[in-house]
Design goal:
The complex is a heterodimer of chains A (129) and B (415). Chain A contains three helices and six strands; from the N terminus they run βαββββαβα. Chain A has 129 residues and is of the alpha+beta class.
Chain lengths: 129, 415
């Protein structure tokens, strides 16, 4: 099974760019995941001010809000996608993240078999026109 | 399972292979190394639920295992073992204590792991024993899990493991990574074991015991570790590429009732794009290394051709036919030739396929193989020779062992 580990750094946006030491520690960790044969993909994200948000109302109408944003909410700073045998194993890997003032959330990824048949069929129907 | 037990099991999954590998190098015996690691696990199960998981669980397990080892050597010294032997082993352990396990260079841990992989897949052992020992020592699977994974009785697997460890001990197989020519000679056995594990998982159907379906992921994990550690050579990357791309199709290869769906009829929207990208990247790494692609690399290249085609009609059959020809040269087999026939037929028309088929149809290995007349029937049908095609499909139906397949072939014969 697959798990997504989301990193929520508890920092102000102006401190978004990590130091060389922090990057080095994180690279070592990433390397350890890779050497364990479990790392499927990972990315670090630019701060939210450089992105934007599209919100949908109850009628499904979209509204685009461009950054920067006034309110500072908890935001994702990056993620890892890993393969693990159990939630406990994913949590153990998450607890080895060389983090400071941050939160790492572990979520299991939906797989095709987790969906009922009608949902699976909807995926097929919409592929290839 | 309590939370603490779950957490300990998770640590065990992560640490056990490195633990056994490090201990095996020191004590020179995988069986003893495994016993010591198990002792450390038992100690963790006793201590951690109250004390909590230590900050450095790998280091804790290693320190505990070493202490158990020293206790054992001392105890045995009073019985049968020669004093100097004990002194030597204990000396090695104390020396090891000085070099902090966690501080050990990455290469060193990597070398230990690699040595353990090669030892588990040693040519002295039967293929079944290699698979069982690899899953046990590198995958951290229990004996009952291995038995369930391979649909084998538990006592059989247990006995296989005991014998394998005894064989390695009696032959005094050194815990080391083979070098140069010996490495080239022994790598295929390691790759074979990993691919066997993968195929066993691939053969399992959805809804079967999770231990079985998890085998694919376990094989991928082992393959990636090997590709990361193994000295230059394209085949480890080739195997990883092949497994990643094959695994990308696992959501598409069975219909709603569990029946197999042929590659060209699969719903490509269900192929996993992440695994395809990973597979292609692994294949690029294999291609970038010196030396031609081996059998795994070539099969991966064929799989990548299929993965690249967004629709089945866009498949580059000319390239696939060329890759099968290369595969037939380095790993000739009737099944490879038969696949080549199919590719040739798709690439250059049915006559090209039939021509090759004439050259291989007398191979005794294919005499009872229903796919031979089935492929011939398909080519004849495409060539407009309906009656001959129908007779081939009927012949194929009598050879097919699977009822579903037989029905399918008879339908083609009648149509």
């Amino acid at each position: 099974m697959r798990f997504m580990m989301f990193m929520y750094p508890q920092i102000e946006e102006q401190d978004w760019n990590p130091t060389a030491e922090a990057v080095e520690a994180m690279s070592r960790y990433n390397e350890e995941l890779r050497k364990a044969g479990l790392l499927l993909s990972l990315d670090g994200l630019h701060p939210p001010s450089e992105g934007g948000v599209v919100s949908f109302d109850s009628e499904g109408k979209a509204t685009v809000t461009d950054g920067p944003f006034a309110e500072a909410k908890e935001v994702v700073g990056g993620y890892w996608l890993i393969q693990a045998r159990s939630k406990e194993e994913a949590l153990e890997w998450a607890s080895r993240v060389p983090g400071e003032n941050c939160r790492v959330e572990v979520r299991r990824v939906f797989e095709m078999e987790d969906f009922p048949q009608d949902v699976q069929d909807a995926v097929s129907e919409n592929f290839g026109g | 399972m309590s939370d603490a037990t779950g957490a300990i099991e998770a640590v065990w999954r992560i640490e056990s292979a490195r633990l056994v590998a490090g201990l095996a190098r020191t004590v020179g015996d995988v069986g003893l190394a495994e016993d010591l690691a198990q002792d450390a696990l038992v100690a963790a199960l006793e201590k951690w639920p109250q004390a909590g998981v230590p900050d450095n669980p790998g280091g804790w397990l290693m320190a505990t295992a070493k202490n158990r080892a020293i206790d054992r050597f001392r105890r045995e010294a009073t019985y049968e073992r020669k004093r100097e032997e004990v002194a030597r082993d204990a000396g090695a352990l104390f020396a090891m204590e000085r070099s902090d396990f966690e501080a050990a260079a990455d290469d060193e841990i990597g070398d230990d792991l690699l040595a353990l992989i090669f030892t588990c897949c040693h040519p002295l052992l039967s293929r079944e024993a290699r698979v069982a020992l690899t899953l046990r020592l590198l995958g951290g699977l229990t004996t009952p899990e291995i038995a369930r994974a391979f649909l084998a009785p538990e006592p059989t697997v247990a006995q296989r493991l005991v014998r394998a460890k005894r064989t390695l001990r009696e032959a005094r197989v050194p815990l080391e990574v083979p070098r140069d020519a010996e490495l080239d000679e022994r790598l295929p056995s390691v790759l074979e074991v990993i691919y066997l594990v993968f195929n066993e998982g691939y053969a399992a159907s959805a809804g079967e015991d999770w231990v079985r379906t998890d085998l694919c992921e376990e094989a991928l994990r082992l393959g990636r570790i090997l590709a990361e550690l193994a000295p230059a050579g394209p085949e480890a990357h080739g195997l990883v590429a092949l497994m990643e791309i094959q695994a990308s199709r696992s959501g598409a290869r069975r219909g709603p009732d569990g029946e197999p769906v042929l590659l060209l009829e699969q719903d490509r929207g269900r192929w996993d794009p992440l695994l395809i990208v990973r597979g292609r990247r692994a294949l690029e790494r294999a291609e970038a290394l010196p030396g031609p692609l081996g059998p795994y690399g070539l099969q991966a290249a064929i799989a990548a051709c299929h993965a690249r085609a967004i629709r089945a009609e866009e498949t580059d059959w000319v390239r696939i036919a060329a890759l099968y020809e290369a595969l037939a040269q380095i790993a000739p087999s009737p099944v490879v030739e038969l696949n080549r026939t199919v590719a040739l037929g798709m690439a250059f028309g049915p006559e090209a396929g039939l021509e090759l088929l004439e050259r291989i149809e007398d191979d005794p290995a294919l005499a009872q193989y229903h796919l031979l007349p089935s492929v011939r029937g398909d080519l004849l049908e495409k060539a407009g020779r309906r009656e001959e095609a129908a007779s081939e499909f009927r012949k194929a139906a009598t050879l097919a062992t699977n009822a579903r397949e037989r029905k399918f072939l008879l339908r083609r014969a009648g149509g």
